[in-house]
Amino acid sequence: MNKVIITCAIIGAAPTRDQNSHIPITPEEIADSAIEAHQAGASIVHIHVRDPETHVGANDPALFTRVVERIRAKCDVILNLSTGHGGGLFIPADGKMTDADGHIIKDYFSIQTPEERVEHVLQLKPEICSLDIGSMNFGLGLFINAPGLVDKMAEMIRDVGTKPEIELFDVGHIEIANNLIKNGLIAGKPHYQLCMGTTGGTAATPKNAVHFSECLSGDCTWSIFGVGRTQFPMAAMGVLLDGHVRVGFEDNLYLEKGVKAKSNGELVERAAKIVRDLNKEVATADEAREILELK
Predict the structure, then answer these.
(1) Which of 199, 253, 274 is nearest to 11 (CA)?
(2) SS3 labels along 234-259
(3) Which stretches of the chain are assigned E, i.e. beta strand?
(4) Neighbour-count burial of 276, counting CB atoms closer than 10 A to its CB (0-12 exposed, 13-18 middle, 19+ buried)
(5) In this structure, what DSSP letter does residue 165 have?
(6) For every one of its 295 residues, what pLDDT tens digit does the chain have, with 9 covering 90 and above?
(7) pTM of the complete model
(8) Contact call for residues 136 and 142 (beta carbons, < 8 A)
(9) Which of 133, 154, 130 lies closest to 143, judged by CA?
(10) What is the rounded CA–CA span in Å between residue 147 and residue 151?
(11) With contact defined as beta carbons under 8 Å apart, do 237 and 205 qualify?
(12) How far apart are CA 123 and CA 59, in angstroms?
């Protein structure tokens, strides 16, 4: 395939202004960063939202609405809304998750119902949304995606007509995806995101990228990202292996060693250069819609 789709993950739940003062926080900043990323070459923008006051990751449909409406008013970039918030669980080393009065410590527990995790998708009907399908160790905690919960989320996403981007953090997650497809909970040609280099997931190495991509079967499309300093090497692997690529502040804050990126647009421009240097072309939003068979 000669056309490569660039996704820009605008901001996740982890990066802070102390780490990079240029990251977007408010809905308006997130939307404007997404528009800039699109102008730089991204045909898809992956959106998380933050509480504007606390800067903590959020799942408030009202915040997603502010971002989406601002983007839709200014450009035709493909929107990919996150449904990952609401699956976090932290268990301290002593195993105690309650305070002296026996109450669960809320900071340790952020599990939401499937309805809560996809409410903004049902309301806003983006062309794409993420779908995390496997549970795993994640940083210092756990990322919980129990089978029944995932099935329900997949069903609601399917019924609203949004295409799920299936997040794969390990090769074993492919079998979970295969079962979802077999049971009709994911319709059409599947689209995967190979998530490389997260703490607790598959390491971001060229060997692993080759193996991961070769484990995908059937008629599908896929993209890849690497965390931190592996962002651009994994982007290159995505191009070389006939996949697509993701960059952005969610996964990496640096343009190169010791140089912090000033915008998501800078990261997209670097990815676009990699695509062109490897003799391929950056897909437009409409070309990406055709490749991914979006409705």
Answers:
(1) 253
(2) HHHHHHHCCCEEEECCCCCCEEECCE
(3) 3-4, 6-9, 44-47, 49-50, 57-58, 78-81, 88-89, 128-132, 136-138, 141-143, 163-168, 191-196, 221-226, 244-247, 254-256, 259-260, 281-282
(4) middle
(5) E
(6) 699 999 999 999 899 999 999 999 999 999 999 999 999 999 999 999 999 999 999 999 999 999 999 999 999 999 999 999 988 888 888 888 777 777 777 777 788 999 999 999 999 999 999 999 999 998 778 999 999 999 999 999 999 999 999 999 999 999 999 999 999 999 999 999 999 999 999 999 999 999 999 999 889 999 999 999 999 999 999 999 999 999 999 999 999 999 999 999 999 999 999 999 999 999 999 999 999 999 7
(7) 0.95
(8) yes
(9) 133
(10) 6
(11) no
(12) 13
* Closest CA relative to residue 237, chosen from 198, 194, 200, 267: 194
Contact 8, 45 (CB under 8 A): yes
Q: Please name the residue that has the structure tokens 């953090």.
A: 169
